Amino acid sequence: MATDVLHSAKKARNDEFYTQYVDIQKEVNAYVEYNPNIFKDKTILLPCDDPEWSNFTKFFAQNFQSFGLKKLISTSYAYNSKNLDYEWQPTLFETSDPRFEIDKSKSKGKIFTLTADENKDGKINIDDLQWKYLEGDGDFRSQEIKKLCEEADIIITNPPFSLFREFILWLFENNKKFLILGNLNAVKYSEVYPFIESKRLWLGVSITSGDRLFGIPDELYDPKKVGARDVVIEGKHYISVVGVRWFTNLEHGRLHEKRTLMTEADNIKFSKHKEIKGIGYQKYDNYDAIEVPYVDAIPSDYEGIMGVPISFMDKYNPNQFEIVGLSMRAGFGLKSNKFYDEYKEIQQNGKLTGSSGKKTNGNPMLKGKPNKGNYYINENGECAYSLYDRFFIKLIKD
Ligand SMILES: C[S@@+](CC[C@H](N)C(=O)[O-])C[C@H]1O[C@@H](n2cnc3c(N)ncnc32)[C@H](O)[C@@H]1O
């Protein structure tokens, strides 16, 4: 029980990372560049965003007029529902406001709306935000937030990491345009992948590698738990997170950029990758496809199915490529045609690990022994080793 409580407090803590203004600005501006009217007369809902913390609210309030927005709605999640292990205090913003109610402050979410120049200073910005307590705690799954979702044209946020799957399904159930942050690994979730295959979801523009810093509220900063990913800049605490990506169904320019590719023969002659140059492409042992370990090594004239790393999604143009499957145990699209139940896992030094080859079923496998890492061997001495997950793709003919 005590471990459960600790675990859920840790999970809740991980849900409290705050996106930097500059990361929001870079991404959103790319959509405006592609379509200057993208937000014109639109209602945007930011469903996990208290403007005291959230730069999403600040960014869209600041750009309300230049984007031509009709309405900005931002909702926050109640402290009591967050399951955090720190002693909460209402902020001065709240206590100094005549609308402050002590009993609601902890248990209710808040709604902030922006539609007009309320303070009559000649501009519409963050100073014109109106707020009140919600009826409930602001959970995006509640009827109250669902209604706001129905009112909105576009949903934008960095949702709680632990609820990413539910959040994506919620967006599709409500049939909304959206732009949200998540982790690249989410492309492999069974809840997410089908939307990618059917071209209803793709990655954003501005983050394709490396890590990003997310703000940690001072209340949640624990000097006893500082790790390698913690960063302090001008006294503020951040955590560096790798693999972050934007997920969206909004059109952007990169989506239409055609990758320049070499033919299979030219790749074999000129590829900068030693695995390809002078060698060519290997067939998987268990999928009817060839292994293409780098996106820039996709042969322009190969008509069959190719397996590529999931980082392919950063370069994906849906008019150039068709995604036909994902190498997973459950199997999406292309099915594995060989299973390794009769194989045994073995280390480089020849010692068996005691695990059966069952555990590699569904992974993309190549025949032979790898240069490093464990592999699998059967009674006849036949070997095979597994690669990271692959998307299976085909080129769309011009
Ligand atoms: C990763 S943080 C990001 C906050 C903000 N969107 C940003 O990017 O700066 C996720 C936020 O969602 C809130 N949250 C957690 N569970 C929620 C739920 N079920 N419904 C709505 N918000 C939730 C968390 O309290 C946290 O403030």
Which structural traits does this protein have?
binds S-adenosylmethionine, eight-stranded mixed β-sheet, 2 domains, five-stranded mixed β-sheet
In short:
By secondary structure, the protein is of the alpha+beta class. Helix content is about 20%, strand content about 25%. It has helices at about 1-15, 20-35, 55-60, 65, 80, 90-95, 100-105, 145-150, 165-175, 195, 265-270, and strands spanning about 20, 45, 70-75, 110-115, 130-135, 155, 175-185, 200-205, 210-215, 230-235, 235-240, 245-250, 290, 305-310, 320-325, 330-335, 345, 350-355, 365, 375, 385, 390-395.
Question: Explain this structure to me?
Answer:
The protein has eleven helices and 22 strands. By secondary structure, it is an alpha+beta fold. It folds into two domains: 255 residues, no CATH class; 141 residues, no CATH class. A hairpin with a 5-residue loop joins β17 and β18. It is globular and about 80 Å long. It starts with a helix and ends with a strand. The structure holds S-adenosylmethionine. The site of S-adenosylmethionine (SAM) has 21 residues, from β1 and α3. The site of S-adenosylmethionine has 21 residues, from β1 and α3.
Write the layout of secondary structure elements.
Blueprint: H1 2-14, E1 18-19, H2 21-34, E2 43-46, H3 55-62, H4 64-67, E3 71-75, H5 79-82, H6 92-95, H7 102-107, E4 110-114, E5 130-133, H8 143-151, E6 154-157, H9 164-173, E7 177-183, H10 193-197, E8 202-203, E9 211-215, E10 230-233, E11 236-242, E12 244-248, H11 264-270, E13 290-291, E14 306-309, E15 321-326, E16 332-333, E17 344-346, E18 352-356, E19 365-367, E20 375-377, E21 383-386, E22 390-395
Parallel strand pairs: 2-3, 2-6, 6-7, 13-14
Antiparallel strand pairs: 1-9, 3-4, 4-5, 7-12, 8-12, 9-11, 10-11, 14-22, 15-16, 15-22, 17-18, 17-20, 19-21, 20-21
S-adenosylmethionine binds next to strand 1 and helix 3.
